[in-house]
Amino acid sequence: MTTTAMKQRSLLGLKDLDAAEIESILDRAAYWEQQAVKLNPVLQGKFVANMFFENSTRTRFSFEMAQKRLGAEVMNFAAAASSVEKGESIYDTVKTLESMGIDAGVIRLKPIGMLAEIAENVKVPLINAGDGNNEHPTQALLDLYTMRKQFGSLKGLNVSIIGDIQHSRVARSNLWALRKFGANVNFCAPDSMRASDLDASYISMDEAIRADVVMMLRVQLERHAGSVMNSAEAYREGYGLTIERAKQLASHAIIMHPAPVNRDVEIDSELVEHPQSRIFPQMSNGVPIRMAVMERALS
Ligand code: NCD
């Protein structure tokens, strides 16, 4: 494969993908979602490594589910059980797996900017499963898919993204992708969680909950220096989707959250499985989305 062809099969982010390309992934996911048969081995004989240098439940398992449903050979790499513990770098780890003959790699890592550097130096397609607070393209794809399924079109859709914007790769990928389709994206966050690098408008919580899509973000406790949990109740008061606030949602509106959820912090526990919530359907949609992404990378 030429380097250009390989790069076109990689998925490092949505910022640089055009709307037509994103749409073709969503359409292909719809095709996969409709298949009654669980196993469609179009990737038989392909070896895929899932390289997670940061914890994950949904993303890792739904990639594995997608890969197995397409008949790929799947290898899972967890940093905690590897030579990373001996000090081996992420770069050397990826080059190691590449040397052994993987056909594609799915990767999640923390250090900012490292993914682009690795992608420059490997010859197999790479799929970003979340890099620091930069991008999480497959999450945003499944989010767009969920919205499109609900509303038919993304054009003119009002989407509020509420919470820890600064640390959120989900917010960034969604912002960049949704705008390509003419959706109106607004953020809502306390000052300490705003992202100075993003050009987007911030609205009040009262306004934010009147949108068509109310997307809550997890307060990223592991990325804050301790002070947040003490004031979880204050956060809930100011920025949580409480039962009280949920009464003001439009009847056609949907609640989203990439999960994991901090119940009773950014969203009240009773709302997680509310009829207007799409939190678990988002997870279901992640499988056909990742089938489409793996197929695009490998076939
Ligand atoms: C998100 C992530 O890891 O970026 N989770 C996910 O992949 N569904 C959001 C989060 O951790 O809050």
Automatic annotation (TrEMBL):
Keywords: Pyrimidine biosynthesis, Transferase. PROSITE patterns: CARBAMOYLTRANSFERASE (PS00097). Its EC number is 2.1.3.2. GO terms for molecular function: aspartate carbamoyltransferase activity. Carbamoyl phosphate binds at residues 58-59, 108, 136, 139, 259-260. Residues 155-295 form the Aspartate/ornithine carbamoyltransferase Asp/Orn-binding domain. L-aspartate binds at residues 86, 169, 218. The keyword Lipoprotein does not apply. SUPFAM superfamilies: Aspartate/ornithine carbamoyltransferase. It comes from the Bacteria. Pathway: Pyrimidine metabolism; UMP biosynthesis via de novo pathway; (S)-dihydroorotate from bicarbonate: step 2/3. Residues 9-148 form the Aspartate/ornithine carbamoyltransferase carbamoyl-P binding domain. Catalyzes the condensation of carbamoyl phosphate and aspartate to form carbamoyl aspartate and inorganic phosphate, the committed step in the de novo pyrimidine nucleotide biosynthesis pathway. Heterododecamer (2C3:3R2) of six catalytic PyrB chains organized as two trimers (C3), and six regulatory PyrI chains organized as three dimers (R2). This is Aspartate carbamoyltransferase. It comes from Paenibacillus terricola.
